[in-house]
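Late entry, evening session. Most of the bench is empty. Finally got around to the prediction I had been postponing all week. Sequence below, unchanged from the version circulated by S.P.
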Amino acid sequence: MQDNTDGFIYAGFFVRLAAYLTDMAIVSFASLAVRLPIWFTKIINPENILTKDFIFKYSVADILFYGLAVTYFVLLTYFTGSTLGKKLFNIKVISAEERPFTFFEILYRETVGRFLAKVIIFAGYFMAGLDRQKRGLHDMLSDTYVVYCHGKRYINP
């Protein structure tokens, strides 16, 4: 944990990783409701439009699963400032300008920012372990911080 003169305690790399892994487990479990019917249709008809390569090597089903995961991260972060994994660890995303963030800022953070953070062997995520304010590349690009939300002040989105 890193304390700041502003009264924030920045969430470090490992707690953020644990929250992200928790979120991915939740998304994976929730997507079973969609994955199982698609899997059964693939067994019945291997040339199904849902499972056949559509764009590059991605199928319609792959795009659907990505869209569901992005929806989870974007909507929860926009409306509550944290996903279920972040809530479990008492951390929250806040704007660096101490104001409510816009929907497009969160959409940018969770799509473009996360994509760029993953491009070179996840180096953009490892930056959170090295930065004084514990910001990953996606935080820097969207001008956000991830802070603990117990006992210290924080900004509600």
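Two things to note before I forget:
The longest strand covers residues 91-95.
Residues 13-44 form the longest helix (32 residues).
Will write this up properly tomorrow.
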